[in-house]
Amino acid sequence: MRLSRYFLPILRETPKEAEIVSHRLMLRAGMIRQEAAGIYSWLPLGLRVLQKVATIVREEMDRAGAIELLMPTLQLADLWRETGRYEAYGPEMLRIKDRHERELLYGPTNEDMITGIFRAYVRSYRDLPKILYHIQWKFRDEQRPRFGVMRGREFLMKDAYSFDIDEASARLSYNKMFVAYLRIFARMGLKAIPMRAETGPIGGDLSHEFLILAETGESAVFCHADVLDLPIPPENTDYESDLLPVIQQWTALYAATGDVHDQDRFERETPEAKRIHTRGIEVGQVFYFGDKYSKPMQALITGPDGAERPFQGGSYGVGVSRLVGALIEASHDENGIIWPEPVAPFKVGIANLKAGDDVTDAACELIYDALEKAGVDVLYDDTDERPGAKFAKLDLIGLPYQLIVGPKGLASGTVELKTRATGARENLDAATAIARLAGS
Hints:
The chain is an alpha+beta fold. Helix content is 32%, strand content 28%. It contains 13 helices and 23 strands. Strands 3, 7, 8, 9, 10, 11, 12, 13 and 16 form a nine-stranded mixed sheet that branches. A hairpin with a 2-residue loop joins β17 (332-333) and β18 (336-337).
């Protein structure tokens, strides 16, 4: 992509309403624009990151055997009345009437709707287990939306739902999602720690939140330091095998949010030198809730004994749009964002230091074409801005690599390759730089 043709509205000043780093940098880097309190347009640079995050989530859900569908944003109030949640949910739910006076709501979550879908089509234990998921926009009318996409009112979420014949089977589904979540966050370059947590309005008695450690987080967290070094399950994990050893390894060490923290147990189980007490950002949560929805909605399954019973369920959420903010909170410096390569909007930015110079233009075109043909996402700054402004812009938007092309370097047969995360710089000939970027 040529910057001269791209839409990248960089802000020189930080808007006053931006309280935390991710909000400031997303606004300054032209990733989002606020349309109303807690509601944002995703501009081209931000949308590229959002799509890459969603792709990783989708790939890992598919790998774990989940099946994708898409449910609407608007839901019938009658479904929620069946489970008793319509009146109980509170003012965070946006309630709507259509022209025929039918009561609707903008879905904050989908347990009720997915139970209705399942109830309409599945009757026998032979059709189980199943895990269905979608990636869809949600709305929760937060009283005080703040921190940009970290606590907005409209947000993109992946929510999955498991269906099983009994509790033992349901816990196997829970374990699959637990392992898939470990992989999802690790692939984005995040260290997300599963922590015992309250189930809240979702219900049930088993839940883990996945949190990344950050001082700007909304949750108090307490954990054993060694949990940060536990191994991530590999890509070839067999999700039909016994995953309990993985779960036990990740839950053996103390890790809990402030809601369920037990200080005596924390001190008893964790050596003082290993105690971490900080704050964290929730990026996902998994729940086992049994028959909380299937029982009131009479979503019955015929078991192997011929008797009907409510299915056992769980739900599993990942805040896709929230993750974009969390990634920035976890990876930035005083100059801007530092994107992990798997989620970066572009892998490399080419800075033409003398646009209009025949030799420099020709070299940049050659490099740009070669990288594009190699399948590398490239942002080519072909504008006539000063070099300092180009460097500042590339640092701000945080692309993993910068390729700096100018007359002085070309006279000696080299271009400069800068790694954003470390600041390391190398002078390489163009062919070597292209091969490095295409192969890394």
